[in-house]
What does this fold into?
Amino acid sequence: MDSDLLFGSVSAQKPVALELYSLIKDLPILSPHSHIDPALFNTRFDNPVEVLIQPDHYILRMLVSQGVPYSQILSKENPCDVWQLFADYFYLFRGTPSGLWFNHTLKNILGVNEKLDSSSATSIYNQIVAKFAEPEFTPKKLFNKMRIEVLATTDPVTSALEYHRAIPSLGLNGRVIPTFRADNMINILLPSWTANIQLLETASGVEIKDFNSFIAALEQRRAYFKSLGGTATDTSCSLPETTFLSHAEVETIFQRALKGQAGKQDAALFTAHMVTEMARMSVEDGMVMQLHSGIYRNHNPEIFNQFGPDKGFDIPIRTEFTRNLKPLLDRFGNNANLTLILFTLDEALYSRELAPIAGAYPAIRIGPPWWFCDSWNGINRYFDLVMETAGLYNTVGFIDDTRSFLSIPARHDLWRRVSANWLARLLVQHLIDRRDAEEMAIELAVGLVKRTYHL
It folds into this structure.
């Protein structure tokens, strides 16, 4: 045992971190979970506001928290005015991941070297507009320039995936693949649920008259997504509750839902049963299952009613996995054919529940820091809370979960920098050796995500 074990020098850490970062900074990007619109690759960029500001709920929520009206932020009438407004308030993002990502994008993607503020707003806006007009600055050309190897979108179960069918002809160096998301099918209290069932019938060609035909339609759609390269599903629910209802029980609830007579208890049981059904389907078809939970969505009804979802008012709530997941784990937790990736915004769960669960059950992997936790400090906390119990190889690498295409390199770069710095600390403390650190750095950058998501 080294006499310096655990007594690493901070001064020795930085050069090691820089060396490890140099090994991984230029590796290709694998983005297995994003919200990029696949139609983007058939277009050119429009104006800087629609590309950089309005899709980004991190930016929107910060501005509105300081009293900036959404009617101004989301205005389509004069993007120059919206950009000036954003620049006037850009100081709000000092020290935040949003500020870090935005500045990275300005400099490294857009070639802007000025500091964004009120006085430079017009100049920077004009520089970006000029850049968007260049022949080499289209989404598909930038996809190649940004070294994206795989980009997974998130798509409704009823999507025809017409843009995905067209992508192979666009000349991309990497792949753009769909991700199967059936949230609007498993929440039977949605006002649009009956209409969604009709859309599912049309898309699948299966007449849905009972629960069995509903499942058959979903399975048909999963197969369609797989045929276009999809490797994963995504399920989001407020709480990660699971249960396994008898056929008679779930059929009764389903029939009430078809008649518009389902209640809150019906909806909770149906969603919990469907999470378990999704796991069962993944065991059979091999698609990776992602479970995002712990979010109170559209918390602000005034904003939701005026401007719709995904405008920055999805707020974390306390959650629990150990008891809630037990019905699912009792059936599938030991099944090597299931990969279930768990995401949380409740950081206390990382060490208390997720690391012990993933460190024991073969089917479980821990998702990376998500949403409000995908920051410099959040990623460091994640490593410290998860790795000692679960180990590196029960995690899955990085996802960017972004709607802002040009921010993808910035988000992956932050992850790689924090990864290198964390590994350097372990190395100078003699908890790992140099070979371990180098191999782990590559795993965190590309290896884990490539294997976990079958990319």
Q: What stands out?
A: The chain is about 50% helix and 10% strand. The radius of gyration is 23 Å. The mean pLDDT is 96.
